[in-house]
Specification:
Layout lengths: L10 E3 L10 E4 L14 H7 L5 E8 L1 H4 L9 H13 L4 E8 L5 H11 L7 E5 L2 H5 L4 H18 L7 E4 L14 H21 L2 E4 L1 H4 L18 H18 L4
Parallel strand pairs: 2-7, 3-4, 3-5, 5-6, 6-7
Antiparallel strand pairs: 1-2
Helix pairs in contact: 3-9, 4-6, 6-7
Length: 254
């Protein structure tokens, strides 16, 4: 169903500090909405050519990927898939694999890779990981090494194509009742995101900043899940609003 533009997206080519690159993407906050269908101009899709009808997507991460404390179809990967089908047509066949578990660290995700023996033919791979390394107080040097290992694995999973990988920044749980606006948590999250954004820049991987969405959680409680810690389906919808224009440019054409 064709939709009209009701959403203005400002794509800023941003990286923390003095670095700038087209693979580092930050977008201004979007207006609050009440449903999970993202409004988007389908003419943008048409201008890019016809997208392949049979797609394979892989989303990697932790509780922010599986959508802890929200419904099964409310996580950002599921919302991304459903919005792509709604936008591109019901004849689209989109296979979505999610490798993520609540509480997973980078080490856990690496073990998950080894256990599940994922294929290397995904059209798009997303990665959102690191908050549990911070929460558990694991040495930052460990995170850096394991994140680098994960990036190599995601590239292999994406047909050895780094342009088919999107890394999402880590949300800031300080802006939840559980986090209690802790400055320590926020500074830690900034440190992690600074490293991952700079590493993605160096590797030519697209990095999408969604941390500011989570930092609206105190002012807008609808963005926080019922457990007072994780994000809500409305927060994940905001993720997808930012992801869609990036994903559409990356999907293979027939």
């Amino acid at each position: 169903m064709k939709k009209h533009i009701v959403l203005i997206l400002f794509l800023l080519i941003v990286i923390y500090g003095c670095y700038k690159d087209e693979n580092i993407i930050s977008i201004d906050s979007v207006s609050e909405t009440t449903d999970l269908d993202v409004d988007f101009d389908t003419e943008v899709v048409d201008q890019e050519g016809e997208i392949k009808k049979d797609l394979k997507l892989l989303s990697l991460g932790d509780s922010y990927t599986i959508g802890t404390s929200v419904c099964e179809t409310c996580s950002y990967p599921e919302q991304l898939r459903s919005n792509l089908i709604s936008m591109l047509g019901s004849d689209m066949k989109i296979e979505l694999d999610i490798l993520a578990t609540n509480g997973w660290t980078t080490a856990d995700l690496i073990k998950g890779y080894e256990t599940n023996k994922l294929l290397n033919d995904y059209d798009l791979v997303t990665l959102l990981i690191g908050v549990n390394n911070q929460y558990q107080g694991i040495q930052f040097s460990v995170f850096k090494k394991e994140f680098e290992d994960l990036i190599e694995k995601t590239i292999i999973s994406a047909n050895n194509d780094e342009t088919s990988v999107i890394v999402l920044s880590i949300p800031d749980y300080a802006y939840t009742p559980f986090g209690n606006q802790s400055e320590v948590i926020s500074k830690d999250i900034d440190r992690y995101n600074l490293f991952t954004s700079q590493y993605c820049l160096a590797k030519g991987i697209t990095y999408l900043d969604i941390t500011d969405i989570s930092r609206e959680g105190i002012e807008n409680p609808k963005l926080v899940a019922s457990d007072n810690l994780h994000l809500s389906k409305f927060a994940y919808k905001k993720f997808v609003e930012r992801l869609l224009p990036v994903v559409l440019k990356k999907l293979p054409r027939e």
